[in-house]
């Protein structure tokens, strides 16, 4: 249970974040319309819409870690606070990907299909049950695109090895690459807004 559940729950958590982001964006589009919702600044409007959900997703992440390592008293070699900190950029990148999927089409059903295809292999590609070095190049590339793959490396380094905070958080540096999807999301939102005006 400790080996599998500690990876399955974060994989499901990633899916929850991406899908919830899509649903929030779809609800705002439906209830307010693009112009009223995003004008005059799509970036500010998206931050105003999505940032209130970051603490909610973070509390979910905190809850499963506390459940694992305090409630079930699974062995923990490191510090939970390092993992709490590692969850914040993971959440932001999952939300960025959910936003990109939504603004690619403005169609919630199609965006949900993209999100499902993207996140479905999360558990298999994490490198927990199958070594990353033995994965095909395609699987390794897909794994590198999944935010939770980088978080799980941080979790393993802290839980199993008690690594320093800096070493653990260095596993998250690839998440800086998700600034590109965030930028793409803003460009797509602005393009849809300009088309709607």
What does this protein look like?
This protein is 77% helix and 0% strand. Helix 4 (53-71) packs antiparallel against helix 5 (80-105) and helix 5 runs antiparallel to helix 9. The mean pLDDT is 90. The chain is an all-alpha fold. The N and C termini lie far apart (53 Å). The protein has 11 helices and no strands.
Task: Record the SSE blueprint.
Blueprint: H1 2-32, H2 34-38, H3 42-50, H4 53-71, H5 80-105, H6 108-119, H7 122-125, H8 137-145, H9 147-159, H10 165-170, H11 179-196
Helix pairs in contact: 1-4, 1-5, 1-6, 4-5, 5-6, 5-9, 5-11
Identify the notable features of this structure and list them briefly.
single chain, 197 residues, mainly alpha, 11 helices, 77% helix
Q: Judging from the principal axes of the Cα atoms, what is the shape? A: elongated
Order of helices and strands: HHHHHHHHHHH
Compute the number of helices: 11
Q: Which structural class is indicated by helix and strand composition?
A: mainly alpha
Strand content: under 5%
Major β-sheet annotation: none
Question: What is the gyration radius calculated from CA atoms?
Answer: 18 Å
> Residue-averaged pLDDT, rounded?
90
| Count of β-strands | 0
Q: N- to C-terminal separation? A: 53 Å
DSSP helix fraction: over 70%
Uncertain residue segments: none
């Amino acid at each position: 249970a400790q080996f599998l559940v500690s990876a399955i729950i974060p994989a499901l958590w990633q899916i929850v974040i991406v899908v919830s982001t899509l649903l929030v964006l779809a609800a705002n589009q439906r209830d307010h319309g693009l112009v009223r919702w995003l004008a005059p600044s799509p970036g500010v409007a998206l931050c105003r819409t999505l940032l209130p959900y970051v603490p909610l997703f973070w509390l979910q992440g905190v809850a499963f870690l506390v459940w694992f390592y305090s409630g079930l008293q699974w062995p923990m070699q490191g510090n939970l606070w390092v993992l709490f900190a590692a969850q914040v950029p993971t959440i932001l990148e999952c939300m960025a990907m959910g936003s990109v999927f939504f603004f690619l089409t403005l169609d919630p059903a199609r965006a949900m299909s993209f999100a499902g295809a993207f996140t479905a292999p999360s558990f298999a590609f994490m490198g927990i049950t199958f070594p990353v070095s033995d994965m095909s190049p395609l699987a390794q590339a897909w794994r590198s695109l999944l935010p939770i793959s980088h978080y799980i490396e941080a979790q393993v380094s802290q839980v199993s090895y008690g690594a320093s905070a800096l070493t653990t958080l260095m596993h998250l540096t690839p998440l800086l690459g998700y600034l590109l999807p965030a930028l793409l999301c803003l460009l797509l939102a602005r393009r849809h807004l300009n088309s709607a005006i």
